[in-house]
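Aryl-alcohol dehydrogenase-like predicted oxidoreductase: structure, please.
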Amino acid sequence: MHTRRIGDVEVSAVGLGAMPMSIEGRPDTARSLATLHAALDAGVTLIDTADAYHMGADEVGHNETLVAKALASHERGGDVLVATKGGHLRPGDGSWTLDGSPAHLRSACEASLRRLGVEAIGLYQFHRPDPRIPYAESVGALRELLDEGKIRMAGISNADPDQIRQADEILGGRLVSVQNQFSPVFRSSEPELRLCDELGIAFLPWGPFGGISRAGELATAHAPFGRIAQAHGVSAHQVCLAWMLAKSPVVVPIPGASRPESIRDSVRAADLVLTPEEIAELDAA
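Here you go.
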């Protein structure tokens, strides 16, 4: 598989977003493990998770535990960079809340360490800015975790350009990733993508197909993606990921999947070469 870099780590050009395996509508454990193993078999070496990917309040870290189980039971599990996040919470009533306090981020990181069964988390990301807490304090907590060796690399998620610059400064030039929403239907993160390209920071688009509820409508809701997919004899999802990969060498999409077939299809996007004319058409769609 083609590769890209996050910090000093080489990863597959297409990663796996494991969230759909733990939230509402999730599959049973057997299918989730089969999906994670299919990703590893296909050459995926980046898996994205978070402590907030769960449903009930009594199962915080469900997705991290699932990922850890899959990696421990596969011969290639040790080759994977696990990216997890802290600072976003689910009380158990279907809502999402925030806690970007340094105390919470530290305790969340330590809990993630235990669930993942590692001495240091490969990539730890501040999940979402908390308006009650100065951003510098939240990122400062990541710096401390990085300096203490509890995390190997630090990233941020759902950030704007000013926050990206601020985080990189606070981390002493050690910010390695920005994970923002980006898809054919949600393109407002173009400035963040361009900034990451300029700074050499990995940009990880989440929800690349427009979100779980819209993923199946990609070919029809965005006709050029469907038309170009038909011309190449591939899925519109492959075209979408190939379009993102063509934007910059710092882009590493993390499509969600809950079936082995889905991640196998997504991985093939790394081999799909779009013409400049096709890229321009998709940009204008």
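Notes: The longest helix spans residues 102-116.
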